[in-house]
Amino acid sequence: MSKVHNFSAGPSILNQDVIKKASEAVTNFNDLNLSILEISHRSKDFVAVMDNAVALVKEILNVPEGYSVLFLQGGASTGFLATILNFMSKDGTGAYLNTGAWSKKALQEAKKLGNLNMVASSEDNNFNYIPKVYPISTNDDYLHITTNNTIFGTQIKKLPVSRIPIIADMSSDIFSRKINVSDYAMIYAGAQKNLGPAGTTLYIVKDSLLGKNDRTIPTMLDLSVHADKGSMFNTPPVYPIYVSMLTLEWLKANGGIEWIERVNNEKAALLYNEIDNNPLFEGTAAKEDRSNMNVTFVLTDESKKEQFDQLWNEAGISGINGHRSVGGYRASIYNAMPIESIQVLVDTMKKLNS
Amino acid sequence: MSKVHNFSAGPSILNQDVIKKASEAVTNFNDLNLSILEISHRSKDFVAVMDNAVALVKEILNVPEGYSVLFLQGGASTGFLATILNFMSKDGTGAYLNTGAWSKKALQEAKKLGNLNMVASSEDNNFNYIPKVYPISTNDDYLHITTNNTIFGTQIKKLPVSRIPIIADMSSDIFSRKINVSDYAMIYAGAQKNLGPAGTTLYIVKDSLLGKNDRTIPTMLDLSVHADKGSMFNTPPVYPIYVSMLTLEWLKANGGIEWIERVNNEKAALLYNEIDNNPLFEGTAAKEDRSNMNVTFVLTDESKKEQFDQLWNEAGISGINGHRSVGGYRASIYNAMPIESIQVLVDTMKKLNS
């Protein structure tokens, strides 16, 4: 079969070497003559996987001392809840920046379970920009942000200056660019974009902030419990963590964050350049807030839709339809997406006749 | 390499055909030329997996109308919490039967977040039996039971007669024997014993009981939300669900529950027979409560330990050390364990010199 250019928004493309190793481990893991799917999570072979995955996160993101790296379950949607239970005091308030569908889900949960202070929102313009000037009250327990907005194709380029702890949902741009972990009280991210397959969620959390909330925290949502047990309080999602470890090994071997940030900048520039120079297309996000992960664009002439859809289908492109709330197209160009696939998309855009 | 006889308590042995298909799907799923790890959970190919997995559960367990079958995340430990939030009213009480380490964790969570009524406990004798006579108050919201106790090797053979809804943690014996789903308000089970790899948790829940509790339920723990969205409220753990589907296909193709119950009875009888007839071994659980899934036994003469450990190691047996709270040995003989492997263990036990 010919190559598929997989622009899916997530679960999304993984590196081919990672996939090959991931497949092999299902039949024979570490030459044990056992599948990784059927070994105990307490076995030394899996404990080594967990330790290695944690060490790689720390190395690649330069995580300072005093932070725990956890691989848990439940997706970012559970992260919304973990944020509230671990960081919002019983009578306290969480400050939220509303930059898209996922931000909104996070803040709705805060409203449901506590008090919400929405510091700013770009919903007035269908979330096509990132609000930049807004007050942050030191009365609030934390500021919650979504660093990349998958659906709307925007990304926070500059972290707000905040005197309260910042908690960031980085599900769709973690490991795509340099970050300064010490700027955050907590970072959480569903694995299924830049880290691995669906089924595990990464937390990077400042230890000194845990165990201090006055809420009754259910055990499975208490991050101090998971930190104390090294993500092994209960059976972890073994295989998603293993594939995440392989992805982190791939990232490290190729040059880590400096390398991938440079590559991601090149990849995004290639596609945005075509969008800006081809009169048949236009981007939907404010230029200064454009995401390097999810590139959203529409046709300037809707009558060309059938022709364009046929062209990209023929080119082997998949997963490029925009989310229903934006329409048009969305090219998700996560870490594992090769620039060659983006070139195929750009060439296809050039082929569209005006 | 020679065959490994994998008696691990969980994550545990899977059928070899399942493993082969599971490995292939990682490189090329459904001939899409894409890995199952990198496709969208909204793609028609994965939606078909989810639909098939749910249909197989319903068929194999003969699930009546009015129950939802869900594949969620978080393990049985999250099931403890989902039980309380969805079924224990704000001022209500949960009744719990305490038959082992996992029962105890479930009831401790109830104590933490509400009111606990422990109807009976076998902790007085290190959980080596199942309490059978105890009052069940109709003032309590539900009765929670753990049908099989992995660590202690006991299993509930006869469901208590209860006028309040029964909620069962069946993590370690679901799909091993016939059950009458309509006897339960909810059944939940971590996949990693009889169903698939670690990373997904099965819920079978009576729809008419959902959405009626007076607690504020966080979205991700509200089973009515997941039931409404067919386990697709957020990104599901794609691969663990896929491998579970394969396991269910294997079970159905071989004859379903009737077949596996008969095989499990034969397998357990083979091993218990040796334990009862070999003077060098004795079982730790009360005979009438012995588990067909986890067979716990000790040496009658501890001085034989070194010799026995060497014998089973040489025979290619793995994962047979008992849990530290019982000591001795534990042979977990879940559905996928072939009787040939149990015969190897029995032969090894016979080889031990008196």
Write up what this structure looks like.
The structure is a homodimer of 354-residue chains. The first copy, chain A, is built from nine helices and 14 strands. Chain A is α/β, with parallel strands linked by helices and 354 residues long. Chain A has two domains: 16-254, Type I PLP-dependent aspartate aminotransferase-like (Major domain) (Aspartate Aminotransferase, domain 2, 3-Layer(aba) Sandwich), CATH 3.40.640; 256-351, Aspartate Aminotransferase, domain 1. In chain A, strands 2-10-9-8-5-3-4 form a seven-stranded mixed β-sheet, sandwiched between helices. A three-stranded antiparallel β-sheet of chain A has the order 11-12-14, covered by helices on one side. In chain A, helix 4 (101-113) links the parallel strand 3 (93-98) and strand 4. In chain A, helix 1 (16-27) runs antiparallel to helix 6 and helix 2 crosses helix 6 (238-254). The longest helix of chain A is centred in the C-terminal third of the chain and has 22 residues, at 256-277. Chain A is globular, with a radius of gyration of 21 Å. The model of chain A has no long low-confidence stretch (mean pLDDT 97).
